[in-house]
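Lab notebook, design round three. We kept the backbone fixed and only want residue identities now. Task for the bench partner: fill in a sequence for the structure below.
Input structure tokens:
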């Protein structure tokens, strides 16, 4: 069976973005391997994630640098699913995550948009259980 292994977020600085995703968002640092003097293979993921993780790739061209913080043209580009929305929302807010809105109820679940270190937009989301009306 196939699955999505990594998604890339283009970043300005490895160490500052590792600190953000690990210490503020609460992800685990899965790998930080030096490739050469300027390039590292840096992978983070939510605790317990089994498949998809995030590759933090430092921009090396002007075009890549221009995309930092706006990789999806202002749309939400990543969706952080949780089974404990309220706890994760409060923990992340207390750690300094910038939420653009208060949590809201949608037909698909509870959601709040937040920004990463560079302004990329993410959804923190707790999906409704199939066939149910609650979380």
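Proposed sequence:
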């Amino acid at each position: 069976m196939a699955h999505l292994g990594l998604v890339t977020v283009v970043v300005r600085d490895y160490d500052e973005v590792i600190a953000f995703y690990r210490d503020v968002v609460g992800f685990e640092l899965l790998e930080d391997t030096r490739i050469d003097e300027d390039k590292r293979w840096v992978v983070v993921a939510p605790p317990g994630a089994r498949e998809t993780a995030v590759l933090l790739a430092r921009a090396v061209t002007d075009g890549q640098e221009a995309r930092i913080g706006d990789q999806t043209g202002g749309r939400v580009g990543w969706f952080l699913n949780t089974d404990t929305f309220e706890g994760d929302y409060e923990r992340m807010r207390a750690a300094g995550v910038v939420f653009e809105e208060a949590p809201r109820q949608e037909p698909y679940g509870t959601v709040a948009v937040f920004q990463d270190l560079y302004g990329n937009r993410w959804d923190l989301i707790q999906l409704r259980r199939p066939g149910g009306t609650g979380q």
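Keep this in mind before ordering anything: Residues 15 and 42 are 10 Å apart (CA to CA).
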